[in-house]
Design a protein that fits this description.
This protein is an alpha/beta fold. It is built from 16 helices and nine strands. The protein has a single domain, classed as pyruvate-formate lyase- activating enzyme (Alpha-Beta Horseshoe). It has a nine-stranded mixed beta sheet with strand order 6-5-4-3-2-1-7-8-9, with helices on both faces. The longest helix is centred in the N-terminal third of the chain and has 16 residues. Bound molecules: iron/sulfur cluster (2 copies). The site of one iron/sulfur cluster (SF4) has 14 residues, from α12.
Length: 399
């Protein structure tokens, strides 16, 4: 099992409690973004194009802990931005541990080796290192040479010191299945506890728009990667989510499963879309137009989405029904089976637009890594509280 027994038990107990209470929309993982500032400017990132006055903002430790308490999710993913830049990151981590939550501290690992002395190994804390492939792919994806070696070295150091270390990988349509498989092998050899993989999401504001996956190509890509997979590979996902990625199971999105709290407040409806902000988690649940989103919804931005923050919670919820439990057993048993493809699938995969040459990585002045270009949408959102019942600016001031 790629997570400690205590974590699996905590999550199982929590989900069963929600089922007994007949709570249809419950949070599983709080996506906590205590800042948007980052020391990288990755080509597919939709978080770093905010204007400077927003990048300067931080969610205080007090507000972060209050948000976690209010939401009640057993797992907290601390994302961003780069959380290790946050001046109160230790207080946030320690406070969440005291609350009994399991934490995935997402980091690009540039600062991880130095930061390790600030933390103590704990079964409730895992560093989730951003790794987008082998050296060539990763350095290209994060727009900086040498980043792969730094991250790999930090992973080894953290593992040696007794920390839990996982990885999170975003795969774009440039992914070479054979190279991804090699990459998985490498991560296993350095002691990574479990790998998270997710298809990229087509952020309107991300600098490079040709690299994102369409749903049918996503399934073909993951079939190619997982087919004849190795027993040694450990994933930090439910078997049903992996089966979903390779097209064996169909799920709709449960965006409330991974609610997002950041410098603006609670974000509607999910980690990826920002259709307004509200002050409380309950207000998020009560006032979001949930049927609009996901595969059955009408919002075109959801059409090609298969990301883990929308669908992992659907897979976990499903596993707690009799039919879903049977699907889970089947998914776990058949994950490694050889993949078969239709001619249409292969044609679509082979004919997708190749991603050639230099990508759209921004050039940044030293020390201002996240200034990767002016984005009018983000400027407007930050300035006038777009489609929110409260002003985003007003909410941001409170944080
Ligand atoms: S590491 Fe890359 S993807 Fe993550 S927040 Fe920084 S710029 Fe965005
Ligand atoms: S389908 Fe994707 S973009 Fe749409 S609500 Fe779900 S997670 Fe968000």
């Amino acid at each position: 099992m790629p997570v400690p027994v205590s974590q699996a038990y905590t999550v199982a107990k929590y989900v069963l409690t929600q089922k007994v209470k007949r709570n249809k929309r419950y949070p599983l993982v709080l996506m906590l973004e205590p800042l948007f500032r980052c020391n990288l400017a990755c080509e597919g990132c939709g978080k770093i194009q905010f204007p400077e006055h927003v990048l300067k903002k931080r969610v205080s430790a007090e507000k972060a802990l209050a948000a976690a308490e209010e939401c009640g999710a057993p797992i907290v993913s601390i994302a961003g931005g780069e959380p290790l830049i946050h001046p109160e990151i230790q207080d946030i981590v320690e406070g969440l541990i005291k609350q009994g939550r399991y934490i995935y501290l997402c980091t690009n690992a540039l600062l991880l080796e130095r930061a390790l002395k600030k933390f103590t190994p704990n079964k409730q804390l895992s560093f989730s290192v951003h790794m987008d492939g082998l050296k060539e792919e990763h350095d290209k994806s994060v727009c900086r040479d040498g980043t792969y070696e730094i991250a790999l070295s930090a992973i080894k150091k953290a593992v040696d010191m007794g920390f839990r270390v996982t990885t999170n990988t975003t795969l774009f349509n440039t992914a070479n299945p054979a190279r991804v498989r090699e990459f998985f092998d490498e991560l296993m050899t350095v002691g990574v506890e479990g790998m998270m993989v997710s298809p990229g999401y087509a952020y309107e504001k991300a600098p490079e728009q040709d690299i994102f996956l369409e749903r049918n190509i996503t399934k073909t890509l993951f079939k190619k990667i997982f087919g004849d997979g190795k027993d040694e590979w450990r994933f930090n996902h439910s078997p049903n989510f992996l089966a979903f990625l390779r097209g064996d199971i169909d799920y709709d999105c449960t965006p409330w499963g991974n609610p997002t709290y950041n410098v603006f407040g609670w974000q509607k409806p999910c980690y990826l879309l920002a259709d307004g902000y509200v002050r409380s988690f309950q207000e998020l649940i009560d006032t979001t137009d949930w049927p609009r989103y996901g595969q059955k919804g009408t919002d075109p931005r959801c059409k090609n989405c298969m990301v883990h923050c929308g669908y992992e919670a659907s897979a976990v919820d499903d596993a707690f029904s009799i039919s879903g439990g049977l699907r889970l057993l089947k998914a776990a048993k058949t994950f490694n089976r050889p993949a078969t493809f239709t001619a249409e699938e292969l044609e679509a995969f082979d004919n997708q637009k190749p991603y050639m040459g230099a990508h759209a990585c921004a050039t940044q002045p030293e020390g201002e890594a996240t200034k990767s270009g002016k984005d009018e949408l983000m400027e407007q959102l930050a300035a006038r509280g777009q489609s929110s019942p409260k002003s985003d600016q007003e909410l941001a001031k409170r944080n």
